[in-house]
Specification:
With about 230 residues, this protein is of the alpha/beta class. It contains eight helices and six strands; from the N terminus they run H-H-H-E-H-E-H-E-H-E-H-E-H-E. Strand 5, helix 8 and strand 6 form a beta-alpha-beta unit. The longest helix has 18 residues.
Length: about 230
């Protein structure tokens, strides 16, 4: 009887587990927090509640994130204010076959708009753009949307690479990831290697934290790439 109760409880906890957002649910505008940030917070909350067997830990507050673009705006509202809404809109300057090669640098939740862009390209049979995606994360476990990234990497024009800043070695990674993963923080030599390994001259897109974007832009400038050759979300 005890085992049956445990199974029922497990099923109930599984039903309460947060679902990972789809790439299409990210607007690609660099929101802080992104829907993926919120998912990670809720998943952590769910894990703590499950470990303690306490569902009250799942109670959600009407939280305003102090670091959120929208939250800072909402906090300025006064009673009686009228607010107009549009969007959200991304501002990615991509058109089919506009570039022969795209080189995408993404960190953390910045992977979401990149995945949406890649899905848009591969869904168009007439779009022959080559794509190299460089996803930067702390560890292998921190890589978002692994199954979807694996599916996209199977397309003839898509290549995925990873830079893991807090992994010590590659031996515990899946074989399919070892040959396309770099260890350490992304640096100028890595960026140069990624640029030079492209089949054609790439147009570069960057999406991630403010620090990450500044670092990558600095490396691109060191390599002498003109501003017309890259875009930052």
């Amino acid at each position: 009887m005890g085992m049956l109760v445990m199974a029922e409880n497990d099923d109930e906890w599984i039903s309460l587990q947060p679902r990972e957002p789809l790439p299409s649910q990210c607007c690609g505008s660099g929101c802080q927090p992104c829907v993926f940030d919120i998912y990670e917070r809720e998943l952590g909350q769910w894990k703590r509640a499950k470990a303690n067997g306490d569902k009250t830990l799942l109670s959600k507050n009407n939280e305003i994130y102090e670091d959120g673009f929208m939250s800072r705006f909402v906090k300025t509202w006064k009673e009686g204010n009228t607010v107009c809404w549009r969007g959200p809109f991304g501002n990615c300057p991509y058109k089919p076959n506009q570039y022969e090669q795209l080189l995408l640098f993404a960190s953390g939740t910045g992977i979401a708009p990149m995945v949406s862009l890649i899905q848009y390209i591969v869904a168009n049979e007439e779009d022959e753009t080559f794509i190299t995606l460089v996803g930067c994360f702390r560890t292998f476990q921190d890589i978002y949307m692994k199954p979807r990234l694996q599916e996209l990497a199977a397309y003839w024009n898509v290549k995925t690479l990873f830079v893991l800043s807090q992994e010590q070695d590659l031996t515990h990674l899946l074989w399919s990831y070892r040959e396309k993963t770099y260890l350490g923080r992304i640096n100028c030599d890595m960026v140069k290697n990624f640029v030079n390994s492209c089949r054609r001259k790439p147009f570069i897109m960057v999406c991630g934290s403010i620090t990450f974007s500044k670092d990558v832009l600095n490396y691109l400038n060191q390599l002498g790439l003109p501003e017309d050759d890259y875009f930052v979300f």
